[in-house]
Structures are given as C-alpha cells and as structure tokens.
Amino acid sequence: MATTLPKVDAVVVGLGWTGGIMAAELAKAGLKVVGLERGEARNTEDYLKVHDEYRYAVRYELMQNLSKETITIRNHRKMPALPMRQLGSFLLGNGLGGSGTHWNGHSWIFLPYDFKIKTMTDEKYGPNKLSKDYLLQDWGVTYEELEPYFYKYEQTLGISGEDTNPFWGKRTNPFPTPPMKKTPILKKFESATQKLGYHPFMLPSANLSEPYTNPDGAAINSCQYCGFCERFGCEYGAKSSPEITVIPTAEKTNNFEMRFRANVVEVIKNGNKVSGVKYLDTLSGEEFIQEAEVVVLASYVMNNAKLLMVSNIGEQYNPDTGKGTLGKNYCYQILPGVNGYFDEQMNTFMGAGALGMTIDDFNGDSFDHSDLDFIHGASLSITQTGVRPIETNPIQRDTPTWGAEFKKNSIYNYTRTLGIGGQGASMPHKENFLSLDSKYKDAYGLPLLQMTYNFTDQDKALHKYLTEISANIMKEMGAKTVEGKNPITDYDIVGYQTTHNTGGTIMGASPDNSVVNTYLQHWDAENLFVVGAGNFPHNGGYNPTGTVGALAYKSAEGIIKYSKTGGSLV
C-alpha cells in the first residue's frame, strides 16, 4: 500500500539539467518543489579522486545500472528486440546531475533552420526532397522566439565562446566568458580550414576559460585542462553541471526538497489533469504517492517516454497507420569523420571536454543540397579532449589488433594522431520509434522501453559526403596517412557513438503531430510538462544540451504562469 504524501506545488522527476533548471526557476518563483532522483546524491567533493579511467570510463561508475533497468533494441519490426546488457552506443546518466555531470561540455544552440526545417526545405528544394517515409516537421517555435532563453541558459552556465560563426543565428548578447585556449593542435585545424575557404571558430564550452559567478550567485571555476571530462565529474568545479549551478540555486530558496533513490514508476492521471506520481524507495522497496499541482517529467529521453507509456498518457505511435505521437520521431546522430596520422608529436594527452574548433560550412542548410540526396549536415570539429591511455590505442587499419606490432604502433601513434569528427543531423523516419516491450520487464515489474531504430539512406549519404570533406581537411593539415570512417550500414549498439538521443515526446503547434505544445505542456493533461531532448522533432548537427536548456527555461516560465492562471498555455 502506497503512502500518500502532502501535496506540493510541483514535483520534478529527474535532477539533471532540465530538472535542475525547473527546480531553480520554480522555487525562485515561490513554488514548493520536490525533486525525485532515482540515483544518489553527489557533488564536487565526491570527485577529488576522479582520475580513474577504469572506474569511470570503462566500468561506468556514474551511469545507469542495466541490471535494474535497460531497454530492448531492434533494427526493424521483423527483428526480435533484445535487452541492452552492457552500455555501449550511448551512456545513460544516473544520480544528481544526470548526464550533466559526465558530459564533455559542448554547448550548442540549434540553427534557425532547425526550427523551421520542413517549411524551409520545402520552399528551397520542393516537398519531395525526401520521401514521405521521413516525418519532417517544424517545431512550432522559432529561433528568434527562443533566443532570450538560449542566453539565459548560457548565463547560468557561464559558457565560454566567441561569436564569429557566420552560419548560426543572430545573437543579442556576447558569450558570458571568453573562448578557451587556442592550442597548436587547434591552430593546425584553423589554418587548414581557412586555406580551404571555410570559417573556423572556437567551440562553445561549458569548461570555463576563467572563473565566473552566474546571475544566481553560483561560482564556477576555470578549467585546468586535465583531460578528465566525458564520463567523469569535475574535481575542480570548473565544468558547469547541475550540482554546482541550478541545484544550489534551488536549495537557497528553502522551497526545494530533494529525495534520492526515488524511482518514479507511474504518473497518476485523473481526467484532463495529473494528480502526482508514484515512486519506489529503491533501498526499502516502500511505495509513495507524491501529490502535486504540477508534474514535470525531466528525466532522460527514454525514461520520459516510458513513464508516459506505462501511465497510459497519450496515444502510442503506430507506424502502420501513422496515427499517434508518443514514441514517434526517435532520432540519434551520425558521426562522419577521419583519423590523421602524423610524424610530429603533439600534446594530445592534455585537453578538456569542449576544447575544440569547428566549422559550420556543412551544417544545416549552409551549403546547397540541390544535387545531393540528403538534407542538413554536421558541425565538423577537431577537439583536444585529452586522450587517456586505457581506451586510446590509435593504430592504422592494416595493423594487427594484438601482439608486438599493435603495441609498437599504439605507443608511437598515441601523441601523433588527430581526429576530425562531425555531429551529423538525424532526420525522423516512420520506422524509427519508441514503444513498450511486450516480453521483457525491469526490476520493478514495468515493461522495458523498446527502441526500433536503423540508419536510413539519408544517414548513409550524409555520412559519406561529410567523411570526404573531413578527409580533405585532414590532408590539408599535413597528416601522412588519412583514414576515413567506414561507411555506415545497420545500427549497432556495440561501441560508444553519442548520447544525443532525441524524440519520442516531440513538441509542436498541434496535438495532431506532437505530444506537447511549445511550452512542453502535455496536450492531454494541462498540468503535466515533459521536458528534454525527447521534445526535438529531429536531431540537429550539434550536441542537444543548449537547446534543451533553452526549452526548459521557456517551459519553466510557462509553468509559473500556469500556477497562477491554469489552462492551456497556447
């Protein structure tokens, strides 16, 4: 029997970036907020001995325990879906800060083109540029409408960058802090891309270039370039993360309470509203119902979608009929790129998660796609993240993967190998979607989420084209050997690719083609808000975090308004 707890103004499920932003903004506005996090509490002091590559990068100390909950994956509907037993393709965060603790810190804002992609593609290339199997749609909101929220996000994190990219949207304000150091490796990329007529600029970074205090009074330190960012918490408090920014801001108000080891298993719906959530204490097994005037789902893409599905809120997408929106438009990313092998030694072991240079000459619609069999593109970057010895063994393709020659080449190439990588945009396809698995269940008795996903012809064409562009840049940089990534075939969960999963709870201007409106308010339950990268109708050529943060700030503004007036916000 579940214990019903006193009603609060808002309950927030998940305490990563979106949950932390929500908690801070709602608590500052005077709302009483409870945050439920199924992982553990943690903070900077927990990372003082974090330079342990085996514990954190290999054994995934900060990630979700797949023995308790995982997802099943298949490439197509005729294929049996099997549980993911080991993390690989993507890494699901767990605990306070979520993926915002172990991220690299790349902090992008999607292009104006992304938000009106259907309209702009049709106007320029005609409505048949992609086949009808691709479920392209506008987001219901424009870049210009979101730009103030982008800057609010950047101010909170203190993002380091420079406004010299001619292809992204117009910025009203400069970056809060200057760009990171332009190292010799980055200068090599800068020189090569400029010679080729491209437009390099420093990558926007949440590894801060200098000490910074944000508008809420949270202090963030300057990056030490230690090379332990992705998969690690920052021991210096220099990588902006929820536990050093928005969470302390929420706590200062005395309107915010955090509960850990609280795994939400159901959103309770009554009519056109929800009344709260049911959660389990993962240690004691006790059940609780937390009643609330507003429920905010702010956990990861997969879990937000799963909670709606198991709670029977919304209509499940049906690929046969095209009806339903829940689970629709799941997208990933494509990673074109090359490795270059040099004779000269470089300090590749030093760096930071978001230390890099980028060109956007082949992102969005920055180049003509008239004679190409794909749309969109990728940001192409060189990053100096600090290669670590256990997982970094760069060898040419003709080198054996074991033995004396492998060891010799791996050691030689360790400081002589550079990579150029692209964050390739992913377009929604009718056969790529999320649903509930009919066979497998998690440790709490709920069906596992099922992912049906495969790379499309659009993906393969984009990957091939941009790998060739990357190879030309690497040759211009002076590499003696250049090896492009192999052409992509079927999607495989083995091997890390990116944690930039999007879709499943998409936003839009109408309930006919979206789960939530432009304030991320659920169409079927006016006091339920679903916030995260699941709201993206497609995936862009950047990391999603900055766009997620902006949407969270806009949604928080809507919730505060809703708390006073009620009703639909659009």
UniProtKB/TrEMBL annotation:
Keyword terms: FAD, Flavoprotein, Oxidoreductase
InterPro entries linked to this entry: FAD/NAD-bd_sf, GMC_OxRdtase_N, GMC_OxRtase_C
Domain of life: Bacteria
MF (Gene Ontology): flavin adenine dinucleotide binding; oxidoreductase activity, acting on CH-OH group of donors
One Pfam assignment: GMC_oxred_C
All copies of domain Glucose-methanol-choline oxidoreductase C-terminal, residue ranges: 428-552
Glucose-methanol-choline oxidoreductase N-terminal domain location: 220-329
Keyword Phosphoprotein: no
Family: Belongs to the GMC oxidoreductase family.
The protein's name: GMC family oxidoreductase
Species of the source: Psychrobacillus soli
Lineage: Bacteria, Bacillati, Bacillota, Bacilli, Bacillales
